[in-house]
Amino acid sequence: MATSSKKSVMNWSEEKDIVLMRQMVGTGIFEFRAGSKERGKTWLEIAESLNTDERFGGALTARGARDRFTLISRRQKSKNLAQIKSTGGGGEERTEFDILIEDLIELNEEAEKKAQDQTDNQKEKEKQDKEKGLDMRQKAMETMGQTRKRTSEDKDDVFERMKRRRSRSETVTWLDKKAEQDTEWRKLLVEESKREIGIWQGKTRGKSWKFRENSWKCK
């Protein structure tokens, strides 16, 4: 008959808590954002390192280490609050446990505040980006309206220029045609003048020959 293996149960003590917190300080675990892969990996490294210590018996898990710190930090906060109420801020001499836990609590709170600030900044940036996008869209719509108006005005202006250009073109065409007509008219005048000159010269030559003929007869 097979025997069932039981999981080892971690029995915590102040000594083990101090060893755990020393390891946490050494790894700088709170430099990483809560819930990040980096912090999860660091908790795993802490557990693996402590499991090489015979006092932990290889029974510590990453979750077990994290849960233990959460528990002792809550206890320390309650203890500090009770001391403040009873003594007005004074208290017993601080032990290594007190120093480590309070330093780690402070580091954790600073990390949480930093993470919250980053989240708030990201939300604010997203809000500003959204508002900027809406503003750009509004301006784009206004620009489109202005562009359509300007395009319409440009079309009207182009139409007017085309009309003026067509009018000038028609005038030039008329002038060219008139110039051609004038040229043809001048050619006709020249030809008519030549023809008349030719007729006149012919008549003149006829009279001259007749005059000479009469002169010869008289001789």
UniProtKB/TrEMBL annotation:
Positions of the UniProt region annotated as Disordered: 112-162
Comp. bias (Basic and acidic residues): 112-140, 150-161
Highest taxon, organism lineage: Eukaryota
Name of the protein this chain belongs to: Myb-like domain-containing protein
Organism of this sequence: Exaiptasia diaphana (Tropical sea anemone)
Lineage, opening ranks: Eukaryota, Metazoa, Cnidaria, Anthozoa, Hexacorallia
